[in-house]
Amino acid sequence: MADTKTEKQDWLARHRFARIAPRKARLIIDLIRGMPCSTAMDALRFNPKRASVLVGTVLKSAMANANEQEADMSKLYVSEARVDEGPVMKRWQPKDRGRAHPILKRTSHLIVRVSER
Known about the structure:
By secondary structure, the protein is α+β, with helices and mostly antiparallel strands. 32% of the residues lie in helices and 38% in strands. It has a three-stranded antiparallel β-sheet. It is elongated, with a radius of gyration of 18 Å.
């Protein structure tokens, strides 16, 4: 009896507490969602934004997880890509006449899931 895969298998990678604002990272995540992994890697490589480097490492990790399970690398695509908000570091910026203004240093959780077609 031949073994056939009936259920779809997918592989996940995440980068938690990344020091980039979720609003900036979502611009890059939206760019690669649904793309084949090779095309997504090319799009990230030539994108000048800082978030593309962080998202690229997460995508490489998800592809490596799939490769360990002996997936067909040519059939991989980005099935899920999202950015969740992480904790916010609150800092104070001194201003004139003894005042202080708050600064919010935001963090993100980057999640990328790849699947076979």
